[in-house]
């Protein structure tokens, strides 16, 4: 659910609210005497803010290094930003950039009559989905602000739009820890698939050694015992004392799926049991789906039908 944070023609007020929302910024209108209407709406998906920003004018900006990575998905107009090695990149409609991808770098550029969605992402989320070391000094991080390819950027845009439409805009989904946790990790994983980064995804010799059936059984037991909580790849790996990369290799080797895909299957099974035993007078498919972390009812129905051969509504009706 979105809340209006800013709706003004006062450039000073806009600068103040944008600074409070993302990091201290200076904004200078490109033309004097023209209207400077700014609007900002926000929804919170866990620790990730999702903002819909509209600036009906052109302005230059200079911003201190943001604490978080600002994923900027441009819908109309354009935003120029200084990226790696001092070069400038123009992000037009349909493009996405990781502003502040490299910690400690300030942002400067130009915004031209832009409408954009801005996702403020905690840098630590990247390590939650791809860390290869328990040492907090070995954090996964982005090394570039521009997608590695146009296709990768398009896929990230689709992922961000999905989160905005099915989670950020839904008050019930925003209050569900499983839905929120899944959405945040979905964004983080999509970022790593889109931007240059330092994550080592392929298993090394030590990872292969840490993929025994005994460890797999422990991981599965942890998942089944905690499927109703917001568990991450790092949580599961920590429970069995292996790296997340080793855990990924373990599940691919023995179960032909990722650990988080296995979590999804376990939650689907629990949702199925709730539908089988649910009271038709009070239970709903949507409520059961959200309880087990499925924020999009249509996708849940398709996934359910693939595994159980019928609609979840049919199961609930008995």
Which keywords apply here?
single chain; 318 residues; alpha+beta; Jelly Rolls; Arc Repressor Mutant, subunit A; nine-stranded antiparallel beta sheet; DNA-binding
Order of helices and strands: EHEEEEEEEEHHHHHHHHHHHH
What overall geometry do the principal axes of the alpha carbons give? globular
Radius of gyration: 22 Å
Uncertain regions: pLDDT < 50 for 5+ in a row?
Answer: none
Write up this protein:
- 44% of the residues lie in helices and 22% in strands.
- The chain is built from 13 helices and 9 strands.
- The chain has 2 domains: 3-174, Jelly Rolls (Sandwich); 264-317, Arc Repressor Mutant, subunit A (Orthogonal Bundle).
- The protein has helices at residues 11-22, 124-130, 150-168, 171-174, 177-192, 205-209, 213-226, 233-239, 244-255, 259-277, 285-291, 297-308, 312-317; strands at residues 3-8, 25-29, 38-45, 48-55, 58-63, 69-82, 88-92, 96-99, 107-121.
- Helix 2 (124-130) packs across helix 5 (177-192), helix 7 (213-226) crosses helix 9 and helix 10 runs antiparallel to helix 11 (285-291).
- It is of the alpha+beta class and 318 residues long.
- The two termini are 34 Å apart.
- This is Helix-turn-helix transcriptional regulator.
- It comes from Mycobacterium paragordonae.
- Residues 217-318 form the HTH araC/xylS-type domain.
């Amino acid at each position: 659910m979105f809340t209006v944070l800013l709706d003004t023609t006062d450039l000073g007020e806009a600068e103040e609210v944008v600074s409070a929302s993302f990091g201290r910024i200076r904004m200078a209108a490109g033309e004097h005497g023209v209207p400077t209407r700014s609007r900002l709406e926000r929804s919170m998906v866990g620790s990730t803010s999702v903002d819909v920003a509209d600036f009906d004018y052109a302005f230059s900006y200079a911003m201190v290094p943001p604490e978080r990575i600002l994923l900027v998905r441009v819908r109309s107009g354009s935003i120029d930003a200084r990226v790696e090695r001092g070069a400038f990149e123009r992000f037009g409609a349909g493009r996405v950039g990781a502003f502040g991808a490299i910690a400690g770098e300030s942002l400067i550029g130009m915004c031209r009559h832009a409408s954009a969605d801005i996702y403020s992402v905690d840098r630590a989320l990247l390590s939650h989905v791809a860390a290869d070391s328990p040492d907090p000094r070995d954090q996964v991080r982005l090394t570039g602000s521009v997608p590695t390819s146009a296709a990768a950027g398009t896929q990230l845009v689709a992922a961000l739009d999905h989160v905005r439409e099915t989670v950020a805009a839904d008050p019930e989904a925003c209050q569900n820890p499983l839905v929120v946790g899944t959405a945040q990790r979905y964004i983080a994983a999509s970022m790593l698939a889109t931007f240059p980064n330092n994550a080592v995804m392929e298993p090394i010799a030590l990872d292969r050694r840490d993929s025994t059936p005994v460890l797999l059984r422990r991981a599965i037991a942890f998942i089944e015992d905690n499927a109703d909580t917001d568990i991450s790849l790092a949580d599961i790996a920590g429970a069995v004392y292996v790296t997340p990369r080793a855990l990924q290799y373990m599940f691919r080797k023995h179960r032909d799926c990722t650990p988080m895909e296995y979590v999804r299957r376990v939650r689907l099974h629990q949702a199925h049991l709730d539908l089988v035993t649910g009271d038709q007078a009070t239970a709903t498919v949507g409520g059961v789906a959200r309880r087990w972390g499925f924020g999009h009812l249509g996708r849940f129905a398709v996934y359910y039908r693939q595994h159980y051969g019928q609609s979840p509504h049919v199961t609930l009706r008995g």
